[in-house]
Amino acid sequence: MTERMDAFYTCVSNTLVKDILNEDGEYSVRTTRQDAEVKRLLGSFQQDTATLIDTLLAEQLAIGELRESAYFRAGFRLALELTR
After folding, report:
1. Beta carbons of 57 and 38 less than 8 angstroms apart
2. Phi and psi of 46, rounded to 5°?
3. N or C terminus: fewer CB in 10 A for the chain?
4. Which DSSP symbol is given to 44?
5. CB–CB of 50/42 below 8 Å?
6. CA 73, 14, 56 angle in degrees (round to 5)?
7. Distance CA 60, CA 21 (A)
8. Residues with Cβ < 8 Å from 28, sequence gap 6 or more?
9. Is the model's pLDDT at 1 over the cut of 80?
10. Residue 77 pLDDT greater than 70, yes or no
11. Please, are residues 44 and 36 in contact by the beta-carbon 8 Å criterion?
12. Cβ-based neighbours of 2, under 8 Å, separated by 6 or more
C-alpha cells in the first residue's frame, strides 16, 4: 500500500499541488522573496560558512518534504477508512 500511496502522492504533488500553489499569488511572492534573501545571506558569508548554511537549509527543506508526505499519507489513510 505504501508504494501506491507514494506514487499517488507524487502524481498529486506534481500536478494538483503545483497548480494550486501557482494560482496563489502570495505563494509566488513569498518564494521569490525567500530565494532572493537566501542568495543575499549566503553572499554575505565566507565560503565555508555559506556552505554550512546551505547544507542546513537543504536539510530543513528535506524535513519539510518528509512532513508533507506524512500528512498526505495520514489524510489518504483517513479517506480510505472513511470510505469503508
Report:
1. yes
2. -65, 160
3. C
4. T
5. yes
6. 75
7. 20
8. 21, 22
9. no
10. yes
11. no
12. 73
Q: Place 32 in a pLDDT band, splitting at 50, 70 and 90.
A: very high
Determine the Cα angle at 29 with ends 34 and 40, to 5°: 25
Cell of 2: 505504501
Residue with cell 558569508: 45
Distance between CA atoms of residues 68 and 12, nearest Å: 12
What is d(CA 12, CA 71) in angstroms, rounded to the nearest whole number?
Answer: 13
The residue to which cell 532572493 is assigned: 36
Query: Would you report the helix, strand and coil content of the chain in percent, each value rounded to 5?
Result: 90, 0, 10
The cell numbers describing 55, all together, are 547544507
